[in-house]
Amino acid sequence: MKKLIILLSFLIIEKSYSQILLRNLQGEPIFSPYLNENTKNTMLNLNTGTQSIGADYLFTNKSNNPADYLVYRFGLSTKPNEGVGPLITNGQFSPGVKLNAARTKVRLFASPMLVRIDGTKRKFDDWLTLSTSITYEKNKLLRKDTSFSRQVIDTSFTGYSLGLDYNMAFGTFEQDYINFKIVYNRRNNYGELSNVDIIDRRTTFDSASGIQRNIEKKVTAKEGIYKEMDAALIQISYTHLPKYQFKNLKKYDGSDLMKEKEETTTEYVTNGDRVDTITRKTVKSEPVPNPNFKSLKFGYSLFYSALATTGEMPESKLGGSLFIISPDKDNNLIPRLAVNFQMNDIFDLQKKNNGLFKRFQAGVTATFSL
After folding, report:
1. Is residue 60 part of a domain?
2. How many domains does the structure of the chain reveal?
3. Is this prediction's pTM over 0.85?
4. What pLDDT does residue 262 have?
5. pLDDT in tens, 300-349
6. Which of 7, 48, 157, 163 could make an SS bond with 363 (beta carbons 3.0 to 4.6 A apart)?
7. Is the pLDDT of residue 8 over 50?
8. What is the C-alpha to C-alpha distance for residues 49 and 64, in angstroms, rounded to an integer?
């Protein structure tokens, strides 16, 4: 009987512990998120690296089997392709919109709990995700090698991707995640081109008043050789999550540990000239707070990726995230604030004459659970 109680306790702890949607500097999931069975979650995220805003909706199919169920994710994000600056100063908005979807099979090889030979408990989870996305962009380019009237042009681009990644989680309380990902996508190099401000001036002269008037129109565009290409990405990442703790102490069956609290109320009743005193005692139950509970904790993630594109040397990236994490009302762990960093082209195979400092990027991601 004792062994059965311990098993149920660990199963319920596992059921109440899930992690969702930690993103990198490009706004892509570092590993595929998952939920516990029969749950759902909606999130809003802000990313300074891509200057984008997005929303994701995750839900599971109806299942009573914690060892076999599916997780679905649908997302939408948008950003100004020239950045926030031109949007504020020029009122210029060239939209970039991305729709994405994913289907995750939870537990391919794992059981809800793995027991080592020495008797210590250690959880092992795994899940496989098939993801796809479609991207639409409106871009503005400067081409100096053509006639004056056709130098500033508007272009559009439609890209897509298809990816497969395998994820593993180790640990009963503190957890370590390992992700292997391979992605094919149709992309362009618009984000790698140089920004340039274009100012058109028109001058008029009024002979009656002798006043000369200058009218300026400013737009921001990209300058350089624009390309569209096929690309393949391979990525491996490691993520460490802090020890999860419930807000209230738990019993073996997963319910809150309750304590009884006695309350005394006094009422005064007037009966003619006499005042009667009535005292009532009531007993209420309330959860016992966990003295070790902390709503905010720190975690970290590291990744390495290699991108191969048609006609280009492969580009490797090394980066990671430092994040603050906390549970939402459904005990899903949410990375509330993350500082993302990465080193682009770490082996300098692109030979773009960029120094080490110029190849370093950093940004902040904030996530809100709705």
Report:
1. yes
2. 1
3. no
4. 76
5. 999 999 999 988 888 899 999 999 888 776 667 778 888 999 998 888 87
6. 48
7. no
8. 40
